[in-house]
């Protein structure tokens, strides 16, 4: 019941969306827009500031600067471009590494090529290198339609609009306000790998959409979709149902009613994965129904 991405952690209704981009924490944040500092009467200055907007960048960001990686001193469009390159299977395992984003110190203006310390406006040509700029996360992005914001508790920038999210201190992540009074809290819910694909990054930092399940555990949305396509409807971590299965249980009731059971005299104890109740039921080769919640998501004990 939920989903996540890099640069934010947005949770929607049944499948919460989250997204993230930058880990370091710091006391200051400027996620503003230097346009507000430009006098409207100074058209030349404003034109320089806006020059090249949405014309530069990479597959990850529209921005008007590149970065010099502090780890290997090479130049890349963004930290994700660096990580994809330096973690490639073509690279010797001993040389693979991630860019320590909070250590980023130098950026290169895409318009004039001036290398300089991290800042929003180029010291040489005056262009804005990112309409959204977070000096804590060293994040630049011209595509402000993402509604980026910095969460000081998470220590990262997220997307989707600050007013649409709240930070759950127990789960340790930002979730959609839709889930504020309905999600199941799991301590550090995002701070682990996806239990299906074991993606290298924690879900907390994943650029792919993440779903928050009814049980509170998290998983890549695409992995959850693949699970359902293969008729797998139980959380891989706790075995609770990942969606409302009541209709499926009703169909199974009808099917089992048409089948004869040659073990009418045999009783077994079962544990319900959904509600945790223990029941003693008549043995059946197909499935066992929980007496408490009527779920067939059970196992023999």
UniProtKB/TrEMBL annotation:
The keyword Oxidoreductase does not apply. GO terms for biological process: glucose mediated signaling pathway; protein ubiquitination; ubiquitin-dependent protein catabolic process. The keyword Zinc applies. SUPFAM superfamilies: CHY zinc finger-like (SSF161219), RING/U-box (SSF57850), Zinc hairpin stack (SSF161245). Residues 51-127 form the CHY-type domain. Pfam families: zf-CHY, zf-RING_2, zinc_ribbon_6. Residues 194-239 form the RING-type domain. This is RING finger and CHY zinc finger domain-containing protein 1. It comes from Aegilops tauschii subsp. strangulata (Goatgrass).
